[in-house]
Design brief:
By secondary structure, this protein is mainly beta. It has one helix and eleven strands. β4 and β5 form a beta hairpin. The longest helix is centred in the last third of the chain and has 4 residues. It is globular and about 40 Å long.
Length: 126
């Protein structure tokens, strides 16, 4: 059974940092792009960041560039999201995702993404 399990969410204050982790299991994720999405209160799910297996290139939403860093440990099938300078509008449930096709992360075709985690709540208070 394929699973993506997120951890590391919590309640923090504006300006704080937090690191999310996503452990993947149940199959080989060689060749899969892995990434993060989030869904804030009353908002649609939106792309946050992605990292390619093949090239290790990283991609970010404009709203998090310079503040968030995505990385992965292929040996551990784990992807991380280091979040810094957190703001109240970063409050959301953060979801880990995995798919062979990078464009699915940024092209609005999230319904086609193969695997999703259950989400982890990040709340930023001022």
């Amino acid at each position: 059974q394929v699973q993506l399990v997120e951890s590391g969410g919590g309640l923090v204050q504006t300006g704080d940092s937090l690191r999310l982790s996503c452990g993947a299991s149940g199959r080989s994720f060689r060749g899969y792009t892995m990434g993060w999405f989030r869904q804030g209160p009353g908002k649609e799910r939106e792309f946050v960041a992605a990292i390619s297996w093949t090239t290790s290139m990283t991609y970010y939403a404009d709203s998090v560039k310079g503040r968030f860093t995505i990385s992965r440990d292929n040996a551990k099938n784990t992807v991380y999201l280091q979040m810094s300078s957190l703001r109240s509008d970063d409050t959301a449930v953060y979801y880990c995702a995995a798919d062979p096709l990078l464009p699915r992360f940024m092209g609005g075709t999230t319904a086609s993404i193969d695997y999703w985690g259950q989400g982890t709540q990040v709340t930023v208070t001022s």
